[in-house]
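Worked example 2:
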Amino acid sequence: MRKNFKNALKVIGINLLIAFVLVNVIYWSIPTVAAISDLFSTIRPNRASAAISPSYSAVDADWLPAYQREKRRTKTVYRSFVGWRTDAFAGEAINIEGPYLQRRTTNSAAPGAKSAYFFGGSTMWGSGSNDAGTIPSQFAAIAGFRAENFGESGWVAQQSLAMLMQLIQEGHRPDLVVFYDGINEVYVKCVEGFRFGSHRMEARIGAVLRQNVNPASFTAFLAPALEVRDHLTSRLTRAVSENPDYHRDCDANPKKAERIADGLLRDWDVAGKLVKSYGGKFVAFLQPVLMFSRTPYDHLRGRSFRREFNGLRPQYEAVYPLLRQKVASSGEFHDLIQVLDGDEVVHVDILHISPRGNRRVAKKISETVTSLGLSPR
């Protein structure tokens, strides 16, 4: 009897040991597999790069595959007051560097050239472009200023204003400050339930803060598995996450549309006063958007494009005419809605443009700055 009992305990012990080993193998293999998956997703070739989009020129084929790989590898980090910045990164087409985590600007300005600081969302940051193809880099080449890129993906003008305030508080005195906004004011602030002061990540940051997981809890033990679950969900719904299936209501809420338009001009006005207070020059531009540009986009037509275009169009039609009217009556801000008009293909998606589109924008900004009597020396 005692022998049978010992054998039973032995079997139970062996089974428990096997179970313990299996659980730990599964527990630690999940984040490992996820990391390996991320690695291979960044090094395997992008099928889309095999056929260069009509938005790009032939020379772009040299850097575009590297850009596509590197863009998937970039990470976002939290930053007080402004919300987030793209983390430091060193690549062939994308470089993020310095204490402010800026996209690298290609400068060839002469010693002593005046400085120009650029602010905006992903179009200013340079989505779809290598470092040399961003608006600040091309402006530097055209106008001869020493340009700095403070744009960030997803930012609205209020975040750019907060960044500008931080820079001025820390002693920066750029000769020229350029704000380039409009697209994200609609894309972000028209989401139903978002407050006027909301930014894109408000709900996500709030959810993380509410979790408050006890390190000794079972939930904390399962953290790697939960992380991979979220990772896989994100991968499977990437198309949706990049264009969140939010309900936007500016088309049904004229007061909200009006407030968004008024708010952008107030942000510009405050930024302008800050810059002028130390003797600098400030210019602000309303971004071109596909819905109001006479620009070819047949290459973008597809089911997902049509769904996104049809969903966003009423929102831009509700807000952009108000913005254009207010910009025109301001007498000090500038409308770039028509800067991309023509037969040249420049759009890489609904919201972003290629380096040759950025060059058009940079050239127009340079012409505007020159008309205001500001030279690079």
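The longest helix spans residues 2-43. The mean pLDDT is 84.
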